[in-house]
Amino acid sequence: PEIHRDALWALWELTYAEFQQTPQKDSARRDAIRQTLRSQLYALARETWPLARQRRLAALAAQFNEPALSIEINKTLASEQNDPNEAAVFYERAARDALAVSDYATCAALYLTARKVTADPQQAKLYFLAAVRALQSGNQPLAALEMAERELGVLKNDPEVLLFLTELARAAGK
């Protein structure tokens, strides 16, 4: 299994090198290689890799416009972390990938998950605000307000959060 896994990675590297060496003007060839690379990314993602290689896979998935794969890899990495702050960072990366493809609901949910796992109260607050802003940026002010009210929790007495939510409510016509 390890030899197979390493062969898959070597094949990826060779294909990637070919992609980089293919002239920009040969768009048909580059598109064909790009599609092969995407298929290889999914094959690589099914394997078990050390943390550094998994991080690289997530970045490559984002680079090759495979946000769903990048999100899944980051969620898996988050769930495997012993340090809650490290887990939160992976959820944050997944949230950013979701936002990059205008998946506002998934983005907000991932930021809320990051908020729940982090041990840092200030960072938890930032994740909460990022979740609300994600829905807001998707032109969903009512959904943002409802989620904020539902998830407010320990932030119910935070002046900065309350001011933000007041402005959000006004924008939502509430």
Task: Walk me through the topology.
Elements: H1 2-21, H2 27-45, H3 51-63, H4 67-79, H5 84-100, H6 104-117, H7 121-137, H8 141-151, H9 159-171
Helix pairs in contact: 1-2, 2-3, 3-4, 4-5, 5-6, 6-7, 7-8, 8-9
List keywords for this structure.
elongated
DSSP helix fraction? over 70%
Low-pLDDT windows of residues: none
Could you tell me the number of beta strands? Answer: 0
Radius of gyration: 20 Å
- The average pLDDT is 93
Helix and strand element order: HHHHHHHHH
Number of discrete helical segments: 9
Structural class: mainly alpha
Beta-strand residue percentage = under 5%
In short:
By secondary structure, the chain is mainly alpha-helical. The protein is built from nine helices and no strands.
Write a structural description.
The chain has 174 residues and is mainly α. The protein has nine helices and no strands. Helix 6 packs antiparallel against helix 7 and helix 7 (121-137) packs antiparallel against helix 8. The N and C termini lie far apart (58 Å). The relative contact order is 0.07. The mean pLDDT is 93.
